[in-house]
Design a protein that fits this description.
single chain; Chitinase A, domain 3; Thrombin, subunit H; 4-stranded antiparallel β-sheet; rod-shaped
Amino acid sequence: MSEQSSNGRSKNSKQGTQYLAGAIILIVVVLAVGYLAYSSAAFSTVAVGDNVSVFYTGSFTNGTVFNTNVGGAPFNFTVGANQVIPGFDSAVVGMHVGQNKTVTLPPSEAYGPVNQSLIVQAPLSEFKNASVTVGLHVSTPTGLSGVVTAITSNTATIDFNPPLAGRTLIFDIKVAAIRK
């Protein structure tokens, strides 16, 4: 009888070991597939044509913040569609969700240099009885927007350059989402 029970236990033990080994292999395969699916989704990188959501803080080289959306809604744009300044567009390429990056953009990668031909003198009579002060925002019939930067007794100097033209800009960027 002891021989029979020994063989019975031996067979059961061998089958149990095979089932356990099979279960372990199955668990490892399931975990590996899950990891690969997660890692490819979590670590896909931004490419031209992707729609991305980002949080950013823009500042000048002296540290003054000129714009941020941190604490608010993410900013959405399509990479490579000329919806943002060139340096910001290229800065997000290759980033992944959750990644932070700080970039310094010279004027050529931001709003361009100051264009002197966009700084004009206008006679005060053009303002049709409006009170003209430095800092006044004006627009032309063709849609140009500018700011009065100086006033003399007869003229106002108006700068039609983008407000950040000629400035080196620093952006702290965090990718919140990538939609391929």
